[in-house]
């Protein structure tokens, strides 16, 4: 196996150039649209206080420390964006160096970085103030030193330095994003297996112990430092360290979505993995609706879905070929450089399957190790598939379909147009949850009354659907009585199955029931344009 023995510093300038190119691209992709938890991060930074969440233990505090260190010159939003964008650039630079040290050409390394940087979930999170990607450089460095450990172990050279470095970066990764924990634990297991194959169990334990001890000591040290800081700054109600840790875990676990259907889970997992790489705006939601029987006939949607199906087949085939070839190679006695990416891939899979969410923050961890695994197999046909076919297609589709439109989205102008469409006495009826694409649910309507169906359902889960609809009727009647315009967004659109449509339906209010109820009381017209979005207008029926 050909390897490049040039140390990290020998690739420093090319890696910095690669990182700078990624940085520039992501700066140009930054958008005014607020994604997912960004509003919460703004509020936490605005209070100038640490916020401790064991699921992302040091993430918000570290961002706050960086914000304080900069004197806030960029403002809250741009500071958070800078943290995210720089993190992606640094992670990609480290990944490029990892590939070069593993013996891959500079051209192949650049193409692989483009594949990673252009993956859908990174484009979704990276050019935003959603700082979950702060973990990206630490993940890249943990993987980098794991690969170095494998090569040193195979050459019967000292592995202590790489074990310690890998353990330290892995521990930092866990403290930034707890979903990384299965990856770090599997890495220890795979280190043990690889060494045991070559040297026997006793020597394998000795070889793996530095990594495991460093992971435990640094990880616990960062947890203890967080608790001490939280106590000194009076930013926790926990009386003891155990309560601090367990309370955070319970808070995170409360968000876990349990299985809705055993037959759905494998399909949902497979789709989420493909969706990590490819922009598939309606394939997953329509597929889930079809599985649950709320899409009467999927054939009508097939022409519009043909391109997404083809893209999913391209990426899904690539992943399947990589995993099958990689598993076969590993079982035969993996050459150095295969077990580390396998540990990261399987660890991320374990968490994501259990947690049962398609959030980008739970899936971007696959991106680097999948690309590394595919390249480490050193199959020309697989390299051509990954870099010659999938990479340019994903770059074009993800940028043209999602990245560039989101970056160019005129949020302020569209918000103003929506306010004009609703009028000062109007009522907005729709959802609060972000569906993954530019949506009116993200808009600040400045005083205009809203009825968010999903929030009303979630905030009073004991209330039955009839009670929820009665409250909706009251709000509609009040708006119409004062001469306001009532517009319903997405909830009545038969072609929109993005979140949280399915969650609301599972909660007892499928779209058909909502439409039937409203049609019995009001005249429904539309769709009409409201701020660039389709909406349905409600009015009293003629006597």
TrEMBL record:
Keyword line: Membrane, Transmembrane, Transmembrane helix
**What domain of life does the UniProt record list for this protein's source?**
Bacteria
Keyword Membrane belongs to the record: yes
Tagged with keyword Membrane: yes
Which range is the signal sequence, renumbered to this chain?
none
List the transmembrane segments: 12-33, 54-76, 82-99, 106-123, 168-193, 208-228, 273-295, 301-324, 336-355, 384-404
Protein's name in the database:
Glycosyltransferase RgtA/B/C/D-like domain-containing protein
Q: Which organism is it from?
A: Pelomonas cellulosilytica
